Amino acid sequence: MSKNYTGSKSSLITTEPYKELPPNSYVESASNGSHQQDELESNKGIQPFLPNGTAPTLSVADAIAQMLANLGVGYAFGVAGGAMASLWGALSNSSIEVLNFRHEAGAAFAATEAYFASDRPTVVFTTAGPGITNALTGLFAARGEGAKVILLSACTSSPQRGRWAIQETSTYTLPSGGIFTPGALFNYAITIESAAQLPQIFRKLALALAQPGGFVAHLSIPTSVQTSLVEDISLPQLDISPFAITAPKQAIAKSAELLSAGPFAIWVGFGARDAADEIRQLAEKTGAAVMCSPRGKGIFPEDHPQFVGVTGLGGHASVLTYMEQQPPLRTLVLGTRLGEPTSFWSSAMVPTGGFVHVDIDPEVPGVAYPHVETFGVRSDIKTYLQELLQLLPDALARSTPLLLPCPEREAIKQDIDYPVRPEALMSAIQKIIVEGSDAVVMAECGNSFTWSTHLLQFAQANRYRVSTGVGAMGHAVTGVLGAAQARSGKAVAIVGDGAMLMNNEISTAVKYKIPAIWIVLNDARYNMCHQGMKVLGLKGADATMPPTNFAMIARGMGAEAMVVVRESDIEEALEKAIASNVPFLIDVVIDPDRPAPSGGRNKSLAAQGVKSSQAKNSAKPVSFPAV
């Protein structure tokens, strides 16, 4: 779920030829204010659409670049190629900042994280054939995370289709369904065969980007069409405020009635990230316990006495303790799908009175727990809470607040220096990065995810990012560039050695002087797989890899780097990384045999009757990370 929106208006004027958009023609979210006019007028080398009768000099590629800039796009990430040379040139000569990556998947992950760091739509550009297919995993992640990303790709011109063109992209070589048409991957997809299509496309994109929630689009432009000239085309002049989704007053009243019937808990998800103040007001007014999904860390301060922990993967056993010892009558679910990484669909998380589930997507409430009574409310979270707070009686607050369980924090013994224990590394990251800087912290999938989610503690929203939808290796490794670039500040990726070997963009960070930091948990294993197979009692599968000196690789690409093999050296390395003005990698040789934190997961599975040893003898199948 993307930024919350307020207000709704739309006017389309198509009677006059397009010249340029008027001031404030594209309005961003209320938190960022309106798009600045100087940005709209800063298109380098791009001429406006011309009045009728004037000789056209503007190409389709230039028109698309101008259109995207007017829609608020600030960054384009991608890999160039001959089939999209004209489009690449148009983007490079526009007000959009173009970053040339080494792999299309990395570009798509970076674009996703740039959106969340800036709250502005981003662009991914690729050439034909493998350029498109390489980007699909990152775009799939963008859709799952709720980002606003537009893919611009090149495709084979119609006269050459079916004739074995270089990197031919047509229905002869690629399935059109799902790649060039709307579906599970793209909310909107179209092949531009004529400049006459641009006004309609521009209007559709503008309206879609003003809607709350994510939006992933694909514009495929044949090579010959990119260079064709725009003639007698008028783009609509749009004055569109972001749309809001507000619940009917009856739904708010019913919610207040249900929540007033007894003690309730609040389950916070990533979709509620813009309602941090309202969530805290509601919790403190009612005394409700608060828990969050892995993506929701920090929206409600994790050091607050009413915070009982993170649920799901890498979560805290204190959540299950709360549900067992002080069960709420109902749970108010805000902006989370309650999918497997968040809930494991555990029956222990179901309150006796069911859920009040609020989301902007009407298909979300009731899906994760279809057998549980759920009152679904379609609404923007912030607006919903503001209205709910007015209806809930002050008498709802407990006269004597309950003493709630809090996440377990085990003391770290100081008598070990080598090898580095992951929990000692996380303690140093907490001190130097989380508490000592304003850097955004991202965790890669795998054990990096579980260690970071379980042990790091955030008191502010929008400082921690993980992917729980696609969960692709390489997301944080490359996404960290987009986050750092879009926020013009530090972003830190906590990653495993497997992900770092799979897809990194150190060279790209060096080229653009992006202040990204990589902290590599180097254990010469795909350790979630290694540890998971061991717990399952399955032998013979090999999850090891040759030891790698990542610091040497990073320095070979022009970044700064350090190797850490002792716990006493961790803080110094982190301080140097934060102080550096260039990309920085810390290669931490960790103890591979320290079991990743999965106590909350194991307890949840035990509550469902699932055993995590010797899968072949278990009545129910188990797998990692579900161990």
Automatic annotation (TrEMBL):
Residues 59-169 form the Thiamine pyrophosphate enzyme N-terminal TPP-binding domain. Residues 261-388 form the Thiamine pyrophosphate enzyme central domain. GO terms for molecular function: acetolactate synthase activity; flavin adenine dinucleotide binding; magnesium ion binding; thiamine pyrophosphate binding. Keywords: Thiamine pyrophosphate. Residues 1-48, 595-627 are annotated as: Disordered. Coiled coil: none annotated. Pfam families: TPP_enzyme_C, TPP_enzyme_M, TPP_enzyme_N. GO terms for cellular component: acetolactate synthase complex. Residues 1-14, 26-35 have a biased composition (Polar residues). InterPro entries: DHS-like_NAD/FAD-binding_dom (IPR029035), THDP-binding (IPR029061), Thiamin_PyroP_enz_cen_dom (IPR012000), Thiamin_PyroP_enz_TPP-bd_dom (IPR012001), TPP_enz (IPR045229), TPP_enzyme_TPP-bd (IPR011766). Residues 445-588 form the Thiamine pyrophosphate enzyme TPP-binding domain. One of its GO terms (biological process) is isoleucine biosynthetic process. Gene3D superfamilies: 3.40.50.970, TPP-binding domain. The keyword Membrane does not apply. It comes from the Bacteria. Belongs to the TPP enzyme family. This is Thiamine pyrophosphate-binding protein. It comes from Komarekiella delphini-convector SJRDD-AB1.
